[in-house]
Amino acid sequence: EYRLGELEDAVDRQELISLQGVIRQPEDIALYRAEMEDFRTGNVEGWRLGNVRWVRDNDACRRDILERLRSDGPLTARDLPDTCVGPWRSSGWNNNRNVTLLLEQMVLRGEVAAAGRSEGGKRLWDLAERIYGDDPTYHEVEGTDFAAIANGCISVTPLHFDLTDQAGVERLGG
Description:
This protein is α+β, with helices and mostly antiparallel strands. The chain has helices at 4-12, 33-41, 47-57, 59-72, 98-108, 128-132, 145-150, 166-171; strands spanning 17-19, 22-24, 75-76, 112-117, 123-127. The strands form two sheets. A three-stranded antiparallel β-sheet has the order 3-5-4. Strands 1-2 form a two-stranded antiparallel ribbon. A hairpin with a 2-residue loop joins strand 1 (17-19) and strand 2 (22-24).
């Protein structure tokens, strides 16, 4: 059980991490590495393809953000440059939020991560490698459900894994 302030402090100290708005144990990141790789390589289907294309179209902005975080991070979205050549397609809710939406796509790609909050309460962003640490794959983390599946065993813990993703299932050895 955590009090809100204790939880925020644990995230700031990186004892816990925030991934896609959910607070997790740092070692859980290994469960998401394959999915992050799929987003980086464009190995996705359906509506996700549009997001991958938008990130590719704005690759220069993505690289600008990575460089800025590398040199000055962690930073708020407001501190990062919006050099997008194509805005996020929106019906209004997300107008003028290119940087925030690009950061969220970069989280899915495993490039950036939430790094706590600024004194003003704004979300801080940094390079994922600084937040998540080393880059183990799900196969290398002994004792995880993904490692069990990769070794031909059955997982009894529900996993966040799309079983209709044939390429992903094949990578797991199924």
